[in-house]
Amino acid sequence: MATPRGTVQPITSRSVSEQATDELRRAILAGGLAPGAEYSLRELAGMLDISFIPIREALRSLESEGLVIMRPGRSAVIAPLDLDDLHGIYRLRRALEPEIARRSCALLTDRDLDRLQAQAADFGAREQGMADIYDDHHAFHLALLAPAATAWDIRVLTTLWRAAERYIRIGFGRLDPDPTEHERRGKAHADLLAAFRGRDPEKVAAAVEQHLARNEKIAFSALA
User: Fold this and answer.
1) CA quadruple 41, 44, 46, 52: dihedral positive or negative?
2) Which residues contact 168 (CB under 8 A, 6 or more apart)?
3) Element counts in the chain: helices (H) and strands (E)
4) What is the pLDDT of residues 45-60, one digit of tens each?
5) Are 79 and 33 in contact (CB under 8 A)?
6) Three-class SS of residue 68?
7) Which of 25, 28, 158, 187 shows the shortest CA–CA distance to 93?
8) How does residue 165 score in pLDDT terms, banded at 50, 70 and 90?
9) Half-sphere exposure of 168 (CA within 13 A, CB side)
10) Per-residue model confidence (pLDDT) at position 3
């Protein structure tokens, strides 16, 4: 039986607004578009060599992620870094991640953990800065939680991780010149994996809580 016309749409390449969203997000998280800076839509459209319509759509998406603040008229402000926001982000993360980890530790296989162990070894490499490893770091933490996470858990966590990323990049970026920080970073993830291997839900939740507390402290110290 033929599929009714219009029921399924042809597959197309990513829209211009999606590409604009990704590029603006990347520039904001990397600090290229500085916190507190205001840009007109004309400026942003010129930077990306596109029209106003996809810029507006991209900015609406980024506003929903807490990365920009739309102004009346034709401008947007890159969301300032704010200590209250930082605490709020980590308060929500502490409410979600340890609870998901409690359930996930029983679902991850030894093979899963071996693969993550090999990945985490790179986090302690001296030549790896936080900007270099952030995508891998994001994937690592998602893999630890994914077996017990719903689609909505992942949506919410991804939003929180993106919101935290600017703070983490600044905090860890200031520590990168210290070689002992790279060793600590590698050990922190090895300790986290060791807790998951133990399969004790309460110990796993405590290890995730400790990991989050350490990251929040580093980000806080960079901004205080």
Assistant:
1) negative
2) 130, 134, 215, 218, 219
3) 9, 3
4) 999 999 989 999 999 9
5) no
6) strand
7) 158
8) confident
9) 24
10) 44
| Helices marked H in 13-75 | 16-30, 41-48, 52-64
The count of residues in the chain is: 224
Specify the residue for token string 């939003």.
159
Return the DSSP state at 11: P
The rounded Cα 71 to chain-centroid distance in angstroms is 25
- 5's CB contacts (< 8 A; 6+ apart) are none
Look up tokens 């985490």; give the residue: 120
The CA distance from 90 to 95, in Å, is 8
Asked whether residue 40 carries a pLDDT value surpassing 70, the answer given is yes
Residue 12 CB partners (closer than 8 Å, separation 6+): none
**Contact in structure between 158 and 92 (CB atoms under 8 Å):** no
Residue 40 three-state SS: strand
Question: pTM for this one?
Answer: 0.76
Torsion angle in degrees (nearest 10) through CA of 88, 60, 24, 156 = 40
Mean pLDDT, residues 57-81 taken together: 91
Q: Which amino acid is at 50?
A: I
Do β-strands 75-78 and 68-71 pair in parallel, antiparallel, or remain unpaired? antiparallel
